[in-house]
Amino acid sequence: MSQAQSQSSGAPILHGAGVLREVEPAVLPRPKLVENDRSFAWITDKVMGIIEAPTPRWWWWCMAVAAFTASFTVIGLAYLVSTGTGTWGLANPVNWGWAIVNFVFWIGIGHAGTLISAILCLLRQKWRTSVNRAAEAMTIFAVVCAGLFPVFHTGRVWFALYPGFLFPFPNSNGIWPNFHSPLEWDVFAISTYGTVSCLFWYVGLLPDLATARDRFFAAGRMMRAKIYGIFAMGWRGSNRHWSNYEMAYLLLAGLSTPLVLSVHTIVSFDFAVSLVPGWHTTIFPPYFVAGAIFSGFGMVLTLMLPLRSIYRMNDLITQYHIDCMCKITLATGTMVGYAYAMEFFIAWYSANPFEGFAFINRAFGHYAWAYWTMISCNVITPQLFWFRKVRENTALVWVLSIFVNVGMWFERFVITVTSLARDFLPSSWGYYSPTVVDIFTYFGTFGVFSVLFLLFIRFVPLMAVAEIKAVTPQADAHAGHGHGEAHH
Amino acid sequence: MSKNTFGLVARFDSPAAVMHAAEEVRDAGYKHWDVITPFPIHGMDAAMGLRRSLVPRFTLIGGITGFTLGMLGIWWMNAYDYPLAVGGKPMFSPMFAFPVSYELTILLSAFGTIGGMFILNRLPMHYHPVLKYDKIERVTDDEFLIVVETRDPKFTHDGARKLFQKLGAKEISELEN
Which chain B positions have a beta carbon within 8 Å of A213's beta carbon? Predict the structure, then answer.
């Protein structure tokens, strides 16, 4: 203090710095990640209680509805395979319709899971621990739903999984897949994404599976103890193991970060590498990644808010968590809005008549209804998250998250269909509509997703118990020495 | 004490207590010992005197393998085994081979990381004396153990027990093999 005073009196030019030194830095209260100072045992009981309790009745009802919905996909795909891809509404010039729209939609949903598990881990955002398990599950199930569309678009699907079509085996003429094509890059991007997401999820699960194993064993439920035990791989919480485990987890986070950014980049290459007006733009990779994270957070909110109230998880998913997710939705939604504006600007600035037409046509052509649905859901809706009153109204947040999902589906529809339906030659222009088979297949994927997600919440610990414990104040081993808190 | 004893185990009920105890056990010069915790405790590696994990080496090997496999594989498939002329593009260029090689780098790095973690941890190991500890369900919940193994050259039953008592262990017991 005396040093600051002497500086401010001696050298007037340093006066400002002197004042700054006298002002104590503001101590902002850190929001609690677990409300009501819950103990370790409370957290374990709360999360493990879900898989230990008898199956609730609502679960069976939801499962019945989900399975019924999923049957639409089964019917749609069975009809497609037995009849041919002509049953989809694809015809010149629109040879990419709902299939690619739905594929990009579902893949995008998955991206929030990886963002939460990987990027927020690297950024030391501790609030991720309450939502990362469910968000990663969402990623994996979304990739499953996404993968259905390109695989079945090949028509004779057994050839897609057979040597020579998608994966590098020579076909009957000895020709290998064409690696010049972004579609082949996509095969690798999506399969790598699915695989690494599963690995990451599984590594995160190991300690919790061990907890489940030991609790079932103590309760005398041997069958369950054995099944969870097999998957727990004999995990015993040794610190020599934790040391390698934490390093592996950090590395996987470091690997998943460039992976998740590359996946939607490569998905956007499917469009951007072509010459079609409205697709052939360099803004696509960042714009697709922002959109993917935006839609993914929409879906995380859609899923987590009901779970939070069903299982009374308010102490684990606090208002702070919801605030964080709303703010990320707001940020990425604004980026997407910026990208829409920039696309228009560049279409004009490039002075390319085809490019200019493609965008005017998007906003005012036959598909204007889709374009304005997209704008209102993706650009206007998230702006409401500026207001704390909105973020604190859980029901409203949930409704807005649905709008985000709808809007992002329409974004992919607008990009895919408007550009193809009005390409270079007016003589080949057309209007694309989906068929019943398209609608069945897409509608059913929500059932497929829900079935998988319901199985997840029934049999897998819904939250990363070990990770949540590690971010509670009582987990800080230095707190007792009186010098811990200030450093962290 | 029977020959069939794996080690002596002490139970603690807070991260701070087990951390302090681990520092003391480390300083007492034991080699074959371990701390069992329900979650990773920040700073425990230093308290145990563990070296930095070797997992990154496996990751690096995986990554180099993946990138090389991608580049060489694509060259071999599209430029050597069956040269594929598409759109006047070169038979091989690192540019178009890059996205797939990049994905393979990440894929094999991830497998290397996980494989490395399992190899270094000697997992899966479904049988281990620690898992027979009678309150193991508390140890994967909210209790903390320190185990000193009998095969440690410095191990004496009385010495370990005295050390644990001095460190304020809640309970000291023997672990069968």
Answer: 140
The pair of structure tokens assigned to A38 is 């819950």
CB-facing half-sphere around the CA of B24: CA atoms within 13 A: 17
ipTM: 0.93
Mutate to test the interface with A, among B109, B135, B141 (most CBs of A within 10 A): B141
* Spans of all domains in chain A: 1-30, 39-487
C-beta atoms of A244 and B40 within 8 A = no
pLDDT per residue rounded down to tens, chain A (488 residues): 344 444 444 444 555 566 666 777 777 777 777 877 788 888 888 889 999 999 999 999 999 999 999 999 999 999 998 988 888 888 888 888 888 999 999 999 888 888 888 888 888 888 888 888 988 999 999 999 998 998 888 877 777 666 555 676 666 677 888 899 898 899 899 999 999 999 999 999 999 999 999 999 998 889 999 999 999 998 988 999 999 999 999 999 999 999 999 999 999 999 999 888 888 888 999 999 999 989 989 999 999 899 888 888 888 888 888 999 999 999 999 999 999 999 999 999 999 998 899 999 999 988 999 999 999 999 999 999 999 999 999 999 999 999 999 999 999 999 999 988 888 888 888 888 899 999 999 999 999 999 999 999 999 998 898 988 888 888 887 764 444 343 33
Residue to test with chain A: of B34, B37, B138, most A Cβ within 10 A? B37
Domain at A39-487, CATH class: mainly alpha
Cβ-defined contact of B74 to A179 (cutoff 8 Å): yes
Q: Which residues of B7-32 are buried (b: 16+ CB within 10 A; e: fewer)?
A: bbbbbbebbbbbbbbbbebbeeebee
String of DSSP letters for A270-283: HHHTS--TTT--TT
Cβ–Cβ gap A247/B55 under 8 Å:
yes
Global pTM value = 0.88
Given a contact cutoff of 8 angstroms between Cβ atoms, the answer to whether A244 and A269 are in contact is no
Q: Answer yes or no: do A251 and B103 touch at CB < 8 A.
A: no
Place of tokens 């030991």: A214
Bond from prior residue into A177 cis (ω within 30 degrees of 0): no
